[in-house]
């Protein structure tokens, strides 16, 4: 699904008032049709205008049968020569047609009715369109679209290419085309529609919005279809540009609105942070120090910090967050740290308690499983300010959570939270017009081209250096046929005192199925490796069970942990130095990279075995090769983007980036510099226009602009 329905827009947010009219104002759209359209998110005329064709059919020309070439679609005007029905294996109707070029073409049908057969009388004129393929006796078309013509009737070739729209359940392709055509009749004049400054269109040599829409729906006969198929026709580029601009503007405006609030400047002498650094068993890396400086500088200002810290798995983001937290606490304020899973949140809790409690700080814990008295106690400590630091999951955003003086909201693994959730946590710290500083951490490296779009509302810091003493992970790809060998390897590694992960993955998006697979792998491996102690970890287990298993693995009490991808983020067991990932060919590179980051955390040489099911496609082979040859998260992200597209990389929930109607980030990435430039220009010179662009494309989501 490319787009989500957008509701709640007011008239002027659409492409003019006409754009906001419901589809039911079109002839032939009753409640039933309207319902089918609505199921695809098509509720207004504008939705239909932006429902672009997938491809086009050229019925503008009539070709001579004698000149047809197989492998290409064509339209011919001919006469029926012979009709044959057979039922040998399955019903089949063959109609031979011929034209003035003395060529013969066979039309073949596998589904047909009596009335249809009766139409094909030898000598009748027929206009038909379809893909030409080689057949048993010369060329043929299978299930062409056709029209029988009276002798004197004009064939009337079309004067523009025919659009073929994405299917809508319950509506035939012709009805969809007709409805879009009706909607296009109501498209307002160019001047009314246009929002982009003329200078910008000229610079890029792009048509007006009206022209772009009309061309995209009905290209002229001489249109370059290859350009259209690649999504690079100026008409498509024009639409993509405006859409990208709208999304970018929406994030920029959100940032501006956020910055308009004040924030509590945090500039303590830094005693607490110094004490914490003295307690650490290591020195900060240069990159950690630089990022910490950037964060501290932001926090010292009276506007809220909006900073994203990107750093590969294991680069040491947590301690940077802890030092920032120490500063906020020393300034007499509170800090909240939110993580997307309980497992990850618990790990942060462990670290923060170990680091901060010896300094006399109180760290509270709040997750879904904290209930009853414990919950009431935590809420009390948060509200009174007795707990200076609160670590938790989504539970932190619940209404009952009230902070005494929240000055720093830290969100880990940003890509699992949407912008909305980040704002919800921010709102916990609203006091008067002041909002807390925000620090967002992510281990998903985003290619530079996309980072500016994905995080247009944030400043970005990168920890681009690993703590010293890590030995890089060696990665190999192994066919599933060699499973027995791999099991032996695990036996040998564990005999040497190493610990290992066995990661079970499935393509189905079902925790249940995945859990079952992990369970049976756990049993098989247990039988094959009776001398080892195995643990099982999957998403269907109770948090307490998960925690117990993790604790045993961390303590070295378990040799092998059989797990689903729930271990993806945050698991930190330095002694684990071997990881096997099943069905590795099905996972995205970013996810593989995350998983692999669980090993190579200690001094021991680590390895990762990517087990695949043969045969491998060329693409899958290339992807595994990327993993084998690189451990650089940024490089892997660039490759992932190249090979799979941004939806995979960013996750659909993240920023709405994957829910464009027209634009495709990778394909249109070269427009981004212009998009950024245009956004700054519009915000500076024509903020009202900027607002209208956002409202038109982003619609409901624009309400965050006022945040
Ligand atoms: P991530 O960036 O993936 O969240 P963590 O913050 O979990 O990484 O850090 C990974 C491990 O590296 C932790 O065990 C942490 O204590 C350790 N670590 C962090 N910074 C350094 C450093 N400068 N030197 C050595 N070890 C470090
Ligand atoms: Mg982390």
TrEMBL record:
NCBIfam families: PRK10917.1-1, PRK10917.1-3, PRK10917.1-4, PRK10917.2-2, recG. Residues 496-642 form the Helicase C-terminal domain. GO terms for molecular function: helicase activity. It catalyses: Couples ATP hydrolysis with the unwinding of duplex DNA by translocating in the 3'-5' direction; ATP + H2O = ADP + phosphate + H(+). Residues 298-463 form the Helicase ATP-binding domain. CDD domains: DEXHc_RecG, RecG_wedge_OBF. This is ATP-dependent DNA helicase RecG. Belongs to the helicase family. RecG subfamily. It comes from Arenimonas soli. Transmembrane segments: none annotated. Residues 1-27 are annotated as: Disordered. Plays a critical role in recombination and DNA repair. Helps process Holliday junction intermediates to mature products by catalyzing branch migration. Has replication fork regression activity, unwinds stalled or blocked replication forks to make a HJ that can be resolved. Has a DNA unwinding activity characteristic of a DNA helicase with 3'-5' polarity. InterPro entries: ATP-dep_DNA_helicase_RecG (IPR004609), DEAD/DEAH_box_helicase_dom (IPR011545), Helicase_ATP-bd (IPR014001), Helicase_C-like (IPR001650), NA-bd_OB-fold (IPR012340), P-loop_NTPase (IPR027417), RecG/Mfd (IPR047112), RecG_dom3_C (IPR045562). Its EC number is 5.6.2.4. SUPFAM superfamilies: Nucleic acid-binding proteins, P-loop containing nucleoside triphosphate hydrolases. Gene3D superfamilies: 5' to 3' exonuclease, C-terminal subdomain, Nucleic acid-binding proteins, P-loop containing nucleotide triphosphate hydrolases.
């Amino acid at each position: 699904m490319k787009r989500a329905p957008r509701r709640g827009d007011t008239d002027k947010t659409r492409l003019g008032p006409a754009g906001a009219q419901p589809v039911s104002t079109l002839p032939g759209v009753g409640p039933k049709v309207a319902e089918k359209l609505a199921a695809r998110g098509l509720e207004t005329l504008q939705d239909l205008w932006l429902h672009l064709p997938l491809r086009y059919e050229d019925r503008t020309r009539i070709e001579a049968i004698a000149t047809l070439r197989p492998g290409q679609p064509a339209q011919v005007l001919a006469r029926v020569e012979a009709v044959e029905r057979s039922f040998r294996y399955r019903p089949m109707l063959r109609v031979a047609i011929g034209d003035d070029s003395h060529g013969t073409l066979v039309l073949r049908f596998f589904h047909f009715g009596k009335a249809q057969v009766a139409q094909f009388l030898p000598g009748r004129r027929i206009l038909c369109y379809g893909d030409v393929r080689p057949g048993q006796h010369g060329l043929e078309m299978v299930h062409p679209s056709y029209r029988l013509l009276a002798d004197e009737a004009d064939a009337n070739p079309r004067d523009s290419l025919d659009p073929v729209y994405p299917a809508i359940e319950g509506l035939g392709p012709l009805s969809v085309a007709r409805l879009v055509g009706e909607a296009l009749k109501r498209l307002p004049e160019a001047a009314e529609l246009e929002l982009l400054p003329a200078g910008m269109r000229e610079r890029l040599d792009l048509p007006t919005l009206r022209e772009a829409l009309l061309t995209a729906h009905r290209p002229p006969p001489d249109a370059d279809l290859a350009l259209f198929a690649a999504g690079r026709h100026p008409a498509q580029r024009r639409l993509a540009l405006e859409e990208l601009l709208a999304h970018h503007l929406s994030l920029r405006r959100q940032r501006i609105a956020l910055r308009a609030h004040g924030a509590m400047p945090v500039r303590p002498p830094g005693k607490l942070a110094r004490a914490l650094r003295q307690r650490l068993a290591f020195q900060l890396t240069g990159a950690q120090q630089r990022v910490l400086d950037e964060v501290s500088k932001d926090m010292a200002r009276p506007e809220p910090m909006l900073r994203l810290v990107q750093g590969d798995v294991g680069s040491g983001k947590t301690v940077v967050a802890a030092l920032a937290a120490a500063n906020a606490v020393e300034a007499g304020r509170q800090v909240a740290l939110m993580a997307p899973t309980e497992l990850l949140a618990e790990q942060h809790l462990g670290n923060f308690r170990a680091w901060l409690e010896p300094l006399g700080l109180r760290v509270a814990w709040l997750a879904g499983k904290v209930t009853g008295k414990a919950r009431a106690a935590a809420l009390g400590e948060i509200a009174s300010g007795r707990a200076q630091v609160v670590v938790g999951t989504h539970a932190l955003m619940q209404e009952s959570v009230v902070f005494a003086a929240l000055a720093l909201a830290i969100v880990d693994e940003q890509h699992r939270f949407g912008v909305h959730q980040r704002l919800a946590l921010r709102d916990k710290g609203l006091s008067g017009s002041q909002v807390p500083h925000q620090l967002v951490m992510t281990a998903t490296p985003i290619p530079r081209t996309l980072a500016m779009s994905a995080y247009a509302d944030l400043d970005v810091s990168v920890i681009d250096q690993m703590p010293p003493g890590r030995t890089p992970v060696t990665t190999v790809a192994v066919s599933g046929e060699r499973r027995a060998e791999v099991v032996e390897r695990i036996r040998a590694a564990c005999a040497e005192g190493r610990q290992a992960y066995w990661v079970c993955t499935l393509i189905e998006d079902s925790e249940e199925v995945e859990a079952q697979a992990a369970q049976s792998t756990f049993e098989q491996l247990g039988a094959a490796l009776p001398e080892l102690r195995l643990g099982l970890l999957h998403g269907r287990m109770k948090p307490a069970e998960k925690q117990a298993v993790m604790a045993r693995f961390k303590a070295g009490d378990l040799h092998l942990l059989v797990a689903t991808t729930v271990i993806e983020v945050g698991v930190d067991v330095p002694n684990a130095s071997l990881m096997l990932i099943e069905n590795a060919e099905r996972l995205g590179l970013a996810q593989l990279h995350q998983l692999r980051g669980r090993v190579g955390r200690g001094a021991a040489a680590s390895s990762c075995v990517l087990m695949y099911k043969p045969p491998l496609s060329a693409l899958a082979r290339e992807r595994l090769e990327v993993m084998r040859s690189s451990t650089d998260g940024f490089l892997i992200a660039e490759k992932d983007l190249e090979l799979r597209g941004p939806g995979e990389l960013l996750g659909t929930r993240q920023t709405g980036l994957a829910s464009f109607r027209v634009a495709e980030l990778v394909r249109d990435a070269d427009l981004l510099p212009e998009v950024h430039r245009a956004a700054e220009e519009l915000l500076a010179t024509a903020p009202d226009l900027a607002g209208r662009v956002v409202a038109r494309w982003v619609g409901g989501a624009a309400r965050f602009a006022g945040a």
